[in-house]
Design goal:
Elements lengths: L2 H22 L14 H12 L4 H10 L1 H10 L1 H12 L5 H9 L11
């Protein structure tokens, strides 16, 4: 096997293993069992549930990102509502929902404006 093919095969294997690890990693999150308590948390949770989010994904996402949501709402309200609207659009995929349930800290990573 040529060196180029070997590098390609190895890199594909590493990518697949990394993806598999991320998708199947059962690392529990501390905040996953916490109920949201602030008014901002309740607003975000209600919006996500109305949009069709599964409760077992919405609660950890809100709990882990609670401080971020509160700060964003206070400092940049338009961006807060924009981000909530973006998150609401993620409700339709069971794969995304399951991933966010296990890794709620990733919910805010895709926000760029």
């Amino acid at each position: 096997m040529s060196q180029k093919k070997l590098v390609t095969v190895l890199s594909l294997g590493i990518c697949q293993l990394s993806l598999l690890f991320c998708l199947l990693n059962p690392i529990p999150t501390l905040a996953a069992s916490q109920q949201p308590i602030s008014a901002v948390d309740n607003y975000v949770l209600n919006e996500l549930l109305k949009a069709g989010w599964r409760k077992n994904a919405a609660i950890p996402v809100v709990a882990v990102n609670s401080a971020w949501f509160a700060t964003l709402k206070q400092e940049h309200p338009k961006d807060f509502y924009y981000q909530i609207n973006l998150l609401k659009q993620l409700s339709h995929s069971i794969y995304i929902s399951d991933f966010l349930r296990r890794h709620p800290e990733t919910a805010g990573l895709g926000y760029f404006r």
